[in-house]
């Protein structure tokens, strides 16, 4: 069962299984942003065009062709990463994303990772002694964290650290060295941790408590293995699939909504900011690229997490 | 049908406090619907940024509108959005889930599960933004977009439950007595998932309120009217000048309501699902809170 051949079939089967999902997300992205989205013909024409002019431009853009043909062409362009040019600035969308996505990652990824790491550490401590002091603290933290909106935390953090204490810059992204980076990343990091922690803590704790009560961890405990070894070798590893899936699922929920709110509120020129600008100005190529690429990336990440967990987990590998 | 066995324990236990809080909010919202209070939320009543006073209990905002009236009207808006989204989305999820689970491994199941997976894979806020754009002339575009994406988790859970229910004796009895599949799903399957649907409706209610706040804060949500999200958007400007009234009012109202409903959901879940009793909560809340 664990020969390399069966492993290869497993990978191939999972990759094939992701295809219908990929077709689904690109179909929805195309329908929403290109088919029903902002009409490029009107953007390209001047004021008060005649119906003939509109028709001519629509024909030039290929909008008079059947739906399926346009969808097929959209898929071709997407696989070749030909994303067109922004209507607002004329910049190529690929260039725009190459410029803004790194800023988003620099600003938000530290908080995202830190939130997961903190949640995992707290959940392990809570699951080790259910009902104990740390567990009760975690319960309070997670219900507070799940009830807070990222909007509230961003405004509050801006007020506390920008206006009241005046410790960190809370608008813009003037980063040129390590010190200015640390100053600018502080508020987004705290906001992301707040958004992330409560959401993950509860789930991690539930999964870890269940895993600790399973025979392998109980047996390890009875053998008198050290706590750290039990938690890493027997508990974390067995709970890897639900935790990884959860983290992948939290990327669109936490990271994308976070980047929309945090970047547009704090004036950070990242991918969330250009998405927001594209929505308010009806910039169809940018909107199309952001929606379809993030959906495709999500499917890829989900498949990768699933594969990774299966490859390390002997129970699933055999199935 | 078998009611959850612990109904009496339910009302006596930890449900009382959250229900009392929710009742206060409901009264506030109902008063707005009946026109008793909170009707004059848009009128400019005083000079801007006044501190709390007997006329204006929470002061006035930048434009001189009464914050307390806006808070009450925002409560009504929150319930409107929450109910308008959570009830249809839960029902849709129940129907899709029951239908898919009743015909497992056949084409309706395959198609519906593909659709569920597809909708789950598109980042929610981007989907809502794109859909609101596609339906930009529709006044309820935001609510429709939420309904179209929020049903998927309910569908997954109801499908799993239906897979179990369809093996039970009374379904077989209904089938041999000549009931059609649709009848069985409607009369015998869906009623047995009510405990799931209540919890799901509460989760979606919270998700809808939080999503509305986020979208309205960005200026992409509610087009006219007032909501906590719109108040927070105003507050984000005022707070830099040291005026906290709007921010404190809207965020406290949102936080307390969401805390109360989350608490109620936990209690309902714990009493409806004996397996989750003791441990915190079933993994079913996976990916539930969308905002």
What this model shows, in words?
The complex is a heterodimer of chains A (319) and B (291). Helix content of chain A is 79%, strand content 0%. Chain A has 319 residues and is mainly α. Chain A has a domain at 101-281: Orthogonal Bundle (MetI-like fold), CATH 1.10.3720.10. Chain A is flat, with a radius of gyration of 24 Å. The mean pLDDT of chain A is 83. With 291 residues, chain B is mainly α. Chain B has one domain (59-290): MetI-like (MetI-like fold, Orthogonal Bundle), CATH 1.10.3720. Helix content of chain B is 66%, strand content 0%. Chain B has eleven helices and no strands. Chain B has helices at residues 7-12, 16-33, 67-102, 107-121, 124-134, 141-165, 169-176, 181-189, 194-217, 228-238, 245-272. In chain B, helix 3 (67-102) packs across helix 8. The longest helix of chain B has 36 residues, at 67-102. Chain B is elongated, with a radius of gyration of 22 Å. Mean pLDDT of chain B is 81; it is low at 1-8 and 277-291.
CATH superfamily of the domain at 101-281 in chain A: MetI-like
Q: Given the C-alpha coordinates, what overall shape of chain B results?
A: elongated
Q: Class by helix and strand content of chain A?
A: mainly alpha
Radius of gyration of chain B: 22 Å
Give the biggest beta sheet of chain A.
none
Low-pLDDT parts of chain A are: none
Q: Examine the coordinates and then state which fold CATH places here, giving the name of the CATH topology of chain B.
A: MetI-like fold
Q: Assembly state here?
A: heterodimer
Return the average pLDDT of chain A rounded to an integer.
Answer: 83
Helical amount of chain A:
over 70%
Quick structural gist:
The complex is a heterodimer of chains A (319) and B (291). With 319 residues, chain A is mostly helical. Helix content of chain A is 79%, strand content 0%.
Give the topology.
The complex is a heterodimer of chains A (319) and B (291).
Chain A: H1 4-35, H2 40-44, H3 51-60, H4 67-79, H5 93-128, H6 133-147, H7 150-164, H8 178-212, H9 215-222, H10 227-236, H11 240-266, H12 271-281, H13 284-312, H14 314-318
Helix pairs in contact in A: 1-4, 1-13, 5-6, 5-8, 5-11, 6-8, 7-8, 7-11, 8-11, 9-10, 11-12, 11-13, 12-13
Chain B: H1 7-12, H2 16-33, H3 67-102, H4 107-121, H5 124-134, H6 141-165, H7 169-176, H8 181-189, H9 194-217, H10 228-238, H11 245-272
Helix pairs in contact in B: 2-3, 2-11, 3-4, 3-6, 3-8, 3-9, 3-11, 4-6, 5-6, 6-9, 7-8, 9-10, 9-11, 10-11
